[in-house]
């Protein structure tokens, strides 16, 4: 496995992984995949956007982005991690998150937030193992796949 910065030619693979989760799960509140321009914008924020490559194939990705758009939040990022279903449980998420933490700190982030839908056990376990603590829960804030969805907020200081 190799963790590296995303390249433009990775974006179709990134989009395919994400679309699977958007269409079939509640871990993202998007209900469809994103267009290429949206992925280019995410890759161009100046915050880390990484891929996990296995055998020359993009098997997962993670990125840090602004937690909120208002200026006072400029030192707080939100992490997002997505692993291709056939590669889950192999440590890719942990490797991506660890590198996101390092690179986000280097880029000037002081806090990292994870917004975890339905308190997904694997995501919660990963974030807690990497030093995140629960900061709160929001009840019934999303409606997807015919049901109401909660989110749990986890936070880690990077400074």
Automatic annotation (TrEMBL):
Keywords: Acyltransferase, Transferase
Origin species: Herbidospora solisilvae
SUPFAM superfamilies associated with the record: Acyl-CoA N-acyltransferases (Nat)
An MF annotation (GO) of this entry: acyltransferase activity, transferring groups other than amino-acyl groups
KW Transferase (keyword) present: yes
Alphabetical list of PANTHER family matching this protein: N-ACETYLTRANSFERASE, UPF0039 PROTEIN C11D3.02C
Pfam families: Acetyltransf_1 (PF00583)
UniProt keyword Acyltransferase, yes or no: yes
Protein name (record): GNAT family N-acetyltransferase
Domain N-acetyltransferase residue range list: 1-159
Signal peptide annotation: none
């Amino acid at each position: 496995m190799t963790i590296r910065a995303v390249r433009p030619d990775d974006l179709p693979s990134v989009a395919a992984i994400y679309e699977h989760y958007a269409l079939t799960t509640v871990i993202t509140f998007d209900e469809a995949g994103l267009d290429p321009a949206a992925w280019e914008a995410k890759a161009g924020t100046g915050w880390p956007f990484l891929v996990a490559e296995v055998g020359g194939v993009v098997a997962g990705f993670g990125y840090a982005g602004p937690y909120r758009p208002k200026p006072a939040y400029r030192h707080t990022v939100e992490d997002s991690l997505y692993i291709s279903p056939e590669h889950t449980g192999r440590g890719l998420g942990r490797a991506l998150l660890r590198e996101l933490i390092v690179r986000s700190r280097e880029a000037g982030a002081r806090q990292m937030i994870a917004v975890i839908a339905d308190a997904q056990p694997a995501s919660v376990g990963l974030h807690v193992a990497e030093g995140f603590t629960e900061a709160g829960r929001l009840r019934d804030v999303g409606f997807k796949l015919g049901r109401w969805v909660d989110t749990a907020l986890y936070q880690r200081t990077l400074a």
